[in-house]
Amino acid sequence: MKYEVEITRISYATLTFGVEASSEEEAKDLAMDMAYNTSFDEDTAEYEIDSCSESELTDEEWEDEYGA
Q1: DSSP 9-59
Q2: Which end of the chain has fewer beta carbons closer than 10 Å to its terminal beta carbon, N or C?
Q3: Closest by alpha carbon to 17, among 1, 2, 37, 35?
Q4: Is the pTM of this model over 0.70?
Q5: CA pair distance 45, 49, nearest whole angstrom
């Protein structure tokens, strides 16, 4: 039997930014701007199965979708 299993990957990474600002709010905004342009290395990742159901795809549709 063929099944379609949907999995969500949740990743966590932490990075500290040093910023000069005139207020805490400005410091947070500056750090957030910097974070958007930074590549984070994952510290941890979790995987969750969201759903699992018997596939209703034909063999041809299966090959088109999953290549196997």
Answers
A1: EEEE---------SSHHHHHHHHHHHHHTSPPPPSEEEEEEEEEEE----H
A2: N
A3: 35
A4: no
A5: 14
For residue 58, what are its two tokens?
């034909």
Give the mean pLDDT of the chain: 90
Tell me how far apart the alpha carbons of residues 39 and 22 are, in angstroms, rounded to a whole number: 26
Q: Which residue has the tokens 């379609």?
A: 4
Q: Which residues contact 52 (CB under 8 A, 6 or more apart)?
A: 3, 4, 5, 6
CA 20 to each of CA 25, 31, 37, 38: distance values in angstroms, whole numbers, following the listed order = 11, 10, 18, 18
- Tell me which amino acid residue 3 is: Y
Q: What pLDDT is recorded for position 2? A: 92
